[in-house]
Amino acid sequence: MTSSYAFWLAGRQATGEDTFDVTSPWDGRLVGTVSVPTDAQVEEAVAAAHAVREEFAATPAHVRAAALDHVSRRLVERTEEFAQLISAENGKPVKWARGEVGRAVSVFRFAAEEARRFNGGEAQRLDTDAGGQGRLAFTRRFPKGVVLGIAPFNFPLNLCAHKIAPAIAAGVPIILKPAPATPLSGLIIGDLLAETELPAGSWSILPVANDKMPALVKDERLPVISFTGSEKVGYAIMDSVPRKHCTLELGGNGAAVVLADWASDADLDWAATRIATFSNYQGGQSCISVQRVIVDAAVHDRLVPRIVAAVEAQVTGDPSDPKTDVGPLVSEDAARRVESWVSEAVGAGAELLTGGERDGASYTPTVLTDLPADTTLAREEVFGPVLSIVKVNGEAEAFAAVNDSKYGLQAGVFTHDLQAAFRAHRALEVGGVIVGDVPSYRADQMPYGGAKQSGVGREGVRFAMEDYTYERVMVLTGIDL
């Protein structure tokens, strides 16, 4: 049974004049019908958010924290419902969808905790110079203004949570635009927010068509834009509004480095399993999935067959089956693009070790080696279940291979050498270095973002709150310290 979904306008449900259908990428069935806001309704949401700024900023911390705690608890209670919806609209295997709900539970819980302790203020004595005698500086953070949050399709619940929860925690109104391919998970967050006592206008969830976004992006009442998605779209947004504050969490082609000291059979089995799993989880549609495997020659020949075997062991098929590891991509067009990139690579001389077949929106988990450096697959983010393996000689060559990319989101380094771990942390031009594991690890409370073309700013609850606010200093005069 499918449902019709209203959108959320200034904290209340509303419907527009038009609708669009959301279908499953696995079998094409109708998952839900979504109402689209009119231009007048979008204007109403923006005006309401702009008008409630001061009231929301002054809302007591316990009110905002209680609302966030409520959403976290209700997500726990409705975990299976949310997981099934994510799987249906996104094609994500249900076991990964359940994990995504669990992460969203944590995001709202972390935000509740941060709401209680954020912005306590910092005092600084100024009598360190004679001209500052009797003066004390006191600094607090205040909202920059309404946030326009733009979320992607690959984590349709958790990345909406990463936009909404920090904004509420910091007392910043937000207008959320979920991805057109997967709007349902974001929309039903509104069901939970509507059960709270947050001020009207402090949040709206609007499934606005992409062609309507330029006007929203340029609206001066929305001075902060938080975007997660493709490099092309993200930088187009930033270029169109050079005086706005933009946080861009963009793409990557995550590298997993296996150094020579990671040499025991247990080590190599662990690395192969993690690489295979996190090259293919979410159908490879994660900006920190494993795309490049950089292996020291000392362990290369023992590791490669293990990786191929672990990839071939991934269970593909119906995402509603709890045993499925790899479901379809978000659309058949996405799978066709991956197919074309792999075909180009093989035609240019890459060796296909396994996979390389498409069936509708599904693409078999794929391993390549001898990938020419000038192929699309070597330079861009594949966003599909494909990895390539390269042999290197030594640590320095491995780190140089990681950095030979326009992207710099996260990297994984398999090593037992603590000094090598610190050298990696210093040398690798990425936002995060994961030692002893793949680049795909993310804890939702830690700073998350990249270097180079992987974006600007940081997600992660407290770090997003800082991004949505600015420091304002007050100097008290005549203070006897």
Task: Describe the overall structure.
By secondary structure, this protein is of the alpha/beta class. The relative contact order is 0.14. It has a seven-stranded mixed β-sheet with strand order 15-18-19-14-13-21-22, with helices on both faces. Helices cover 39% and strands 22% of the residues.
Outline:
globular
Distance between the termini: 69 Å
Largest sheet composition: 7 strands, mixed
Structural class: alpha/beta
Low-confidence stretches: none
Determine the number of helices (DSSP H or I, runs of at least 4 residues). 16
Strand ordering within the main sheet:
15-18-19-14-13-21-22
Radius of gyration: 24 Å
Descriptive key words:
481 residues; alpha/beta; seven-stranded mixed sheet; six-stranded mixed sheet; 16 helices; 25 strands; 22% strand; globular
Protein topology:
Blueprint: E1 3-5, E2 7-9, E3 12-14, E4 18-23, E5 30-36, H1 39-51, H2 53-57, H3 61-77, H4 79-90, H5 94-117, E6 122-125, E7 135-143, E8 147-150, H6 158-170, E9 174-177, H7 184-193, E10 203-205, H8 213-218, E11 224-228, H9 231-240, E12 245-249, E13 255-258, H10 265-280, E14 292-296, H11 297-312, H12 332-347, E15 351-354, E16 358-359, E17 362-363, E18 366-369, H13 376-379, E19 386-392, H14 395-403, E20 407-408, E21 410-414, H15 418-427, E22 432-435, E23 451-452, E24 455-456, H16 461-467, E25 469-477
Parallel strand pairs: 1-5, 8-9, 8-11, 9-10, 11-12, 13-14, 13-21, 14-19, 18-19, 21-22
Antiparallel strand pairs: 2-3, 4-5, 6-7, 7-25, 12-24, 15-18, 16-17, 20-23
